[in-house]
Amino acid sequence: MKIISFNVNGVRAVVKKTFIEDMTAYNADVICLQETKANDTQVAEALQPLSGTYTIFSCSAERPGYSGTAVLTKVKPLSVSYGLGIAEHDTEGRLITCEFKDFYLINTYVPNSGSELARLDYRETWDEALLNYMLELEKKKPVVLCGDLNVAHQPIDLANPKSNYNKSAGYTQREIDGLSKFIAAGYKDTFRHFHADIVKYSWWSARFNSRAKNVGWRIDYFLASEKLLTQMNGAFILNDIMGSDHCPVGIDLNV
After folding, report:
1. Of residues 104, 127, 133, 148, which has the active-site annotation?
2. Is residue 171 packed enough to be buried (19+ CB in 10 Å), middle (13-18) or exposed (0-12)?
3. Are 181 and 135 in contact (CB under 8 A)?
4. Strand, coil or helix: 48
């Protein structure tokens, strides 16, 4: 099963570019999208060209044009659920869980701490709730978490670690520690598992020609239960796919 995750920074905008052609050519079994910025009807309309190949599930924010997630899958899930089941966390369309035969797949768009770190406290409560949710699912079957986690975990994961440390959203010690708790709980960063020393990014600022200069951050991940690692052929970042300020990341899983 080939699974990719892509923060599209607006699904209605990305489909006007090469998204449909790119996804058709890549032919993944499951495509997880974040930051759809559309309601469920708009998501379905934007993704209609792929509806003959994929079943589409979406989770939209109450606030129009904000946040949102979607899952496109060729493999019919045993069940699909939306949100964490916690009212304060479930108004922004940030999580979809698909249960497959051998594992749960969670697609999430983790809250950004904000330019002034105004949501850092909230983001910490989100991380804690998400990890507790995953550990409950883990009692039934292994878990794969993918999406824009809005954190660079190690200095290798961003181009300018020193100037951003404890100053920029996504690279504060509190956010780093939050991701470390997932890893300590047994969820492995699949890209680092296969590529310990490779410098590769998944997001670039729209300013300063950052993508052309490859001044980026790796903030999009697949975390997987350790017991699934023996079933993985690899993890990858698709830097050549354009259309967003992010690029897709993915895994190849034998299930």
Report:
1. 148
2. buried
3. no
4. helix
Separation in Å, CA 214 to CA 34, 52, 241: 22, 36, 14
DSSP letter at 231 equals G
CATH number reported for the structural domain that contains residue 130 in this entry: 3.60.10.10
Question: Looking at residue 18, what is its pLDDT?
Answer: 97
Structural tokens at position 175: 């956010």
Q: Closest Cα partner for 171 from 218, 238, 108, 222?
A: 218
Quickly count: other Cβ atoms within 10 Å of residue 166's Cβ: 11
56's tokens: 């589409």
| Structural domain range at position 127 | 2-253
Tell me which residue has tokens 């998400």. Answer: 130
Backbone angles phi, psi at 66, to 5 degrees: -135, 140
- The torsion angle over the Cα atoms of residues 119, 120, 121 and 122, rounded to 10 degrees, is 50
State the catalytic residue, choosing from 109, 133, 187, 201: 109
121 classed as catalytic: no
Grouped pLDDT means (10 residues each) for the chain, 255 residues: 98 98 98 98 98 98 97 98 97 98 98 96 98 98 98 98 97 98 98 98 96 98 97 97 98 95
Q: Could you confirm whether 220 is annotated as catalytic?
A: no
Count of structural domains, the chain: 1
| HSE value, Cβ hemisphere, 13 Å, CA-based, for 132 | 9
Size of the chain, expressed as the number of residues it contains: 255
Q: What is the torsional sign of CA 82, 41, 62, 219?
A: positive
